[in-house]
Amino acid sequence: MTHIHTSPGELDAGDGRSVAKRNGPGGNAPPAAPERRNRRENVAGYLFMSPWIAGFLFLIAGPMVFSLYLSFTEYNLFEAPRWIGLQNFTDMFADPRWRQSVEVTSWYVLIGTPIKLAAALAVAMLLAQKRWGQSFYRAAFYAPSLIGASVSAAIVWRALFSDDAIVDRTQKVFGVEVGGWIGDPSMIIYALIALTVWQFGAPMVIFLAGLKQVPRELYEAAEVDGAGPWRRFFHITLPMISPVLFFNVLLETIHSFQIFGSAYIVSNGSCGPADATLVYTCYLYEQGFVNSRMGFASAMGWLLLVAVGLVTAVLFWSQKRWVHYEEGGR
Amino acid sequence: MSQNNGMDRRQLLRLAGLSAAGLGLTAAGCGSGGSGSGGPVTIRHSWWGADDRAKKIQQCVGLFEKKHPKIKVKTDFQQYPDFWKKFNTQAAGGNPPDVIQNAVTFLRKYEAKNVLLDLSPQVEKGNLDLGGFRSGLEKFAEIDGKLLGVPVGSNSMALVIDEKVYEKAGITPEIGWTWDDWLAGLQKIKSGQKIAGDAGPHGVMYLYDLILRQNGKAFFSEDGMGFGEAELLPYWTEALERVKSGLYADPGKVEQIKPASATAKGLSAGEFTWDNFSVRYSAEGRSSYGLAPIPSTDGKKTGQYLGSLMLSGTARTKHPAEVATFISFMTHDPEVARIMGYDRGVPATTAQFEAYQPADAPSKAIGAYETAIADAGVLEPITPHPAGADVIEAAFLRIGADLALGKTSPKDSVKQFFSEAKTALASN
């Protein structure tokens, strides 16, 4: 996906130093001067970055290291943390609610992510063709991504899927009598999955960008050779957008593992009924902030990090087999 | 969400900068206020509840500030579960509000962590008036000689009923009725009125406590559980049967109308809850609602006690005298009683009790109910609630609901409950 073609204007603009040299007062000065200026610029740069660096160190890196320590302790926020070694982790594996949370989360990731990506790709393919009102549809399909993660959308979702609400009534028209999904432990997870699928706008836009990069000639050549739409999709579109697909799979999978807000709100803060929406972070939150088991919660957090890391590693390893980069693209 | 991380961090940073600046300002403010120059002192008060309670408390605070111009009260409130999450974090960070609304399940938990202020020195100094409390309520939050809270209003468990349904079914609950009478009533309601008789009491810790107390036990002992699997298993097995037979409301439906109550939404003819909660039923539902007494095992003993919400100070407050003055005002001033009504129970002091004459039917019913149980002599002293009681209460409610939904067998539910109770007692 690299461009060989470069406009003449970009040639020297790409190298900051040459521009600085040309614009500086001493165009022919000895090389030491720009270096000193560079160093000064570096200092200035770091100074400007310092709030961010301080924020990273104190608000992210520091707390992370501390929570790693906490994960080997029993800590109720009030008394000093007590070192208990790996007990938090062994407790976790013995805890049926923890296993339930792993199960619910895996289910959510394994079902939600593929459906969401399939929907995103399908709609992106429809919108990639030049049609009347195309920009409107793109905006319309993207909109849920902007509001979908919000609290209000989750509240609306709870209302939609309750007894006698629109989903229940529509079901009844078709003779499906399962009642509202919100109160049914075996159905509520699908309400959550529907909520995430509905937000397919973000991966859709990325797919759209990917689809635009596929050279038209390939399709024309394939058509001349008599390839039908399915063949063209599987043999041209999919391989050509596989880097984008990989990117989306990676992003959405990581994102799905972190689901919290929608589960918490759709279940009215209970992550129920019957722990049916007890996603991993929900249980982590409950243990940490309701039951004051910060050590246990930290251990859960680190295990999630490791698990997501492993899944990411597996995805990266697998891409050798199915992701096709154009020559020189990687 | 993950794409926006950079943005979020930057926002967070900006917030951090702002709050750091804010901290500097408050620190400066404290420095000048605490120097004894006689300038106004600010105390922070937070509570849990809905908007209407907030409005009432705000009115009381306005009145207090008028009468005590040197004390300013900053207020804050959340819903019940969120309140405690926030308070826990604030207390752990050493920055809790000066005065909080408190409940009995949290007393020992925060006493063990030295979070609560012992108010007894303030009683001696005359900043806190402990006179004129009804039925010994001033002792309610006394633990190991420390006064950890002052009751604002008494409440007691009751059976809230849909009066129209009970009337049509021809059932009149009276003091002294038994669980058998109650069950016969449920069956009558189910067959005649085509509605579940009860919302399902199996997750209500405070009710199960009463049942245990009727049988000479209690939910908690001083430092642990007051009952075992042998008691709970038959109770929950029976509950599941009653859910299946329709005597108790459909748990899936109950789940969906939360946080509204099942009885107010017409899913059941009654449910066990605190008597002062009944005020909200007429606002939520269409029928008329009344209070029925707690059934007994032997026709006499109901195991009931007067419970109460409290106001507690926190130990790190810099202004214990002002905290005591505020609590004293909230519990004794007649005007406060007229503003608050029975929102937090029947006022705890005689002065406030007499100052407020309820005009609306639900409040009248609450007053009548508490007078009736006091006259019947069924009230007994409350049994202790150890640290961790709050977590155990939540587990009982959740596991009780899971059981009703048919997700776990009674046996597994009981096992799960005791395992979680053990963890809660150990880690709190």
UniProtKB/TrEMBL annotation, chain A:
TM region positions: 46-72, 107-128, 140-160, 187-211, 232-251, 294-317
In residue numbers, the region (Disordered) covers 1-37
Q: Which residues form the signal peptide?
A: none
Q: Which residues form the ABC transmembrane type-1 domain?
A: 102-315
**What kind of membrane protein is this, topologically?**
Multi-pass membrane protein
Query: Is ATP-binding among this UniProt entry's keywords?
Result: no
Q: Where in the cell is it found?
A: Cell membrane
The family database entries (InterPro entries) matched by this protein are listed as:
ABC_transporter_permease, MetI-like, MetI-like_sf
| Highest taxon of source | Bacteria
CDD domains of this UniProt entry?
TM_PBP2 (cd06261)
Q: Pfam families per the record?
A: BPD_transp_1
Q: Which UniProt keywords apply?
A: Cell membrane, Membrane, Transmembrane, Transmembrane helix, Transport
Q: Which family does it belong to?
A: Belongs to the binding-protein-dependent transport system permease family.
Could you tell me what this protein is called?
A: Carbohydrate ABC transporter permease
Specify the species.
Streptomyces atroolivaceus
Q: What is the lineage of its organism?
A: Bacteria, Bacillati, Actinomycetota, Actinomycetes, Kitasatosporales
From TrEMBL, chain B:
Q: Which SUPFAM superfamilies match?
A: Periplasmic binding protein-like II
Query: Which InterPro entries does its entry note?
Result: Bact_solute-bd_prot1, SBP, TAT_signal
- The protein's superkingdom reads Bacteria
Q: Where are the transmembrane segments?
A: none
| Protein name listed in UniProt | ABC transporter substrate-binding protein
Q: Give the organism the record lists.
A: Streptomyces atroolivaceus
